Structure formats: structure tokens, C-alpha cells
What we know:
The protein is α/β, with parallel strands linked by helices. The protein is 38% helix and 16% strand.
Amino acid sequence: MSSEMARYMEMTVESRAAWEEAKRYLPGGDSRNSIFWDPYPIFVESASGARVVDADGVERLDFIGTMTTLILGHSPLAVTEAVGRQLERGVVYNAPNRHQVRLARLLCQRIPSFELVRFTNSGTEATLNTIRAARAFTGRSLIAKAEGGYHGSHDTVSVSVRVDPSKAGERQRPDARPATEGLAEGVLDSVVVLPFNETEAAREILEQHKEQLAAVIVEPMLGSVGMLPATREFLLMLRDFTAENGSVLIFDEVISFRIAPGGAQEYYEITPDMTSLGKIIGGGFAVGAFGGRHDIMGLYDPTSGPRVAHAGTFNANPATMLAGAVTLEQLTPEVYRRLAEVTERLRHGLREAGQELEVPVQVTGIGSLFGIHFLDGELVGYRDIAKADSAFRHQVFLGLLNEGILMAPNLVGAVSTEIGEAEVDAFVGAFRRVLRRMA
Ligand SMILES: Cc1ncc(COP(=O)(O)O)c(C=O)c1O
């Protein structure tokens, strides 16, 4: 057993006991495989601002904020007070509520491509609906997605996410690979996989399938697999190709929306037809949204159809809508500027630590999002990120936990407004100590 692992297990006796108990009722002890790590995760007892406290009373700085959701940190007063007042007026209604309209208005004002929007309870439902709408609108079925792109857990997008490159065909012509067992027959034939950021190779693949192509769905920055931004050239090619071909360009901005007031589409100055959102727009509550062109979103209108079905008991519930609206109202251009500045200090500090200790460290990301990669060479697409030594990365992850820093296990992270220079410097100091121990 490595010394980081041994130290982790010494520090997390109560979490381990909680996890052993959890396993009696829940497969693997939880309901989210994406936050499991070896040997077992910490159990969090409380959280406030930038800090979480685990079952053993250990406090850590939260540099992931529930997979990039908590842009204002844990329990911001503006959100908890507003939601507290709302809960006294009822939790959910069998009727629309005004908070939904407030959040919809905010999103449509911020995102030029949003002529109309609908809410869901997760990013998964949001991408599902962008795809269903695109199929209904075009009358075609084939979907193109990028290798390494994560768009939630429904069948169509559970293809070629964290693939093993040695089993996934050539870099420039990736095979469609299942991301899970249990997919319906034919799913792999309904998806064509593009190499992320390989503009010419991707265009050729699209050209070959253009007659069947309903939509291209893409994260403007590969998020959960490593915070790797797309090149503008790649996204522009997708925009031009889909426009010419009459297929729908979908930006999945469930993560990337937080890089600018109008999301990555504002940052890149590229307007998709449809967009899926989630995470920050619910202010910490379960949420998703999809929106875009009037003629596509109109398929959902019950007064003239609807042509596309859409229900959901908890869709647009008042607490979530209010929390989301209050959160977005806090996010002024000055706040985005400050988030980017603090995160740039972190990126710089981590790179410098790598140089000092002669460990190849690359830090990717835009705005308040970042990913740490122990790799030499240019990081173009998923296959470059996948070259990383995952055992080394895991030791660093455990080392950071031991030093009081919480990130995602693959070392992607997010900076909240509760994090300032002091927290960033604490992270960089911890990172340096961990690398020194690993040397
Ligand atoms: C880009 C992207 N799309 C979709 C999803 C799915 O969202 P949810 O977990 O809310 O279903 C995620 C979740 O991490 C995501 O990162």
C-alpha cells in the first residue's frame, strides 16, 4: 500500500465505517459512480463557503463544488434565505410558478441563442431533449458526438466517453464504443464519433454521414474528462457544416456555461441551434435546461401540438428555479473576471510547482474551470488526455485529500467565489508537498 493510501485510511476511519454500512443497502455504497474513488470516498457531514467537513471532522477546501455546480460555494446566504422563504409557501405545485419565468428570462437575456427554454431535473434530461428535438425537427436519426464527450447517462450519449484508446479504432476515425453495458440494440449504429479538435478528420466523417445526420452534440470544452477546450476552428467547422447540411448544432454547456455570462458560446462567439444546461443554473438544486431556436423549441408547445412530449413531476419546481435565479443574479461580469483571475493564479502556481520539481504538469481550462494533467506534449483531444498515468494521478489525488484539498478523482476542478488568493496558495503549497513526497 502506498504511503498516501495508508495516510488516507488513517484519516478516514469514520468515513470507512459509514461506507461499510452504506454498502449493505446501496451497490458500492452510493448512488453516483462518478464520485467513487479507491479505496472508498469520504462522507461529508457539513459544508460552508469553500470548506467541507468529513465524518472524521477533517476540513478540506472544496475545489470541485459538486462537479462544478457550486459557483458561489456552499450555502450562499442569498440562496438559502430566498429558498427558505419559498419553502414556507409550498415545495412543489401542480401549476407553473413565477420563479421559472424569472430564471427563463435571465437565461434568454444572457444567451443570445436562447429564444425559448425548458427546464428539467438534470443535465442528462437536458441533452436527451436537445437530441430528441433535433431528430423530430430534421426527420433524421443519426447523432454525431466527440470522443471523450460526456453528455449524461441516456443511451444515445453513452457512447465513446472514457474509452480505452487501444480498443477504439484509429485516432482520426474513432469507433463508436459503449460506455456501459445494457445499451439497447442499435444504439452504436445511431451514433458517429468524431475526434475532438481534429477539424479535417471530423469534417470528413460528417461528410460521409450527412444525409442521415440529425445533430452534432459537443461540449465546447471537454469537461468531466479533463477540462480541455475546443479550438475555435473546430467549433466553427461544426457550425458551418451543420448550417449547410440542415442538421442541428447542439452545444452541451452543462459545465462550460460557467466560463462567461453567456457561456462558452459567448466566449467563442459561435451560436449553436440548441444548448443544454445544468449544474450552476439551479443554485445547488437538481436541475437541467435546454433551449435554443424558436422553430425547434416550438415543437414542445402544447397549444400547437405538442410534437415532442415533455413531462417531469419536478421540472421547474419553485425552489430550484428561485435558487438558480438568485445565483445568476449574483454572477455579474465583475464576478466572472475575478473568478478567472483567481483561477489563473492557481493554474500558474501549479505549473510552477511542476517545473520546480521536474514533474511534467499541464493545467488546462478556461475561466473558473481547470484540469491538471501529468503529461508532456500537446493536449489536442481525448486520446492525449487518456495517455496519463492514472495510478500516479490517483496518488496525487489521495495526497491532496490528505493535505486538505478536495477535487474530482481525475483532477478536474472548479473555483468558487468563496475561494481567494489564500485558498489558492494553500492548494499550490499542498500540491508542491505531494509532488515532493512522490519524487
Ligand atoms: C457536459 C455534461 N453534460 C451532461 C451532464 C449530465 O448532467 P447530470 O449529471 O445533471 O445528469 C454532465 C454531468 O456532469 C456534463 O458534464
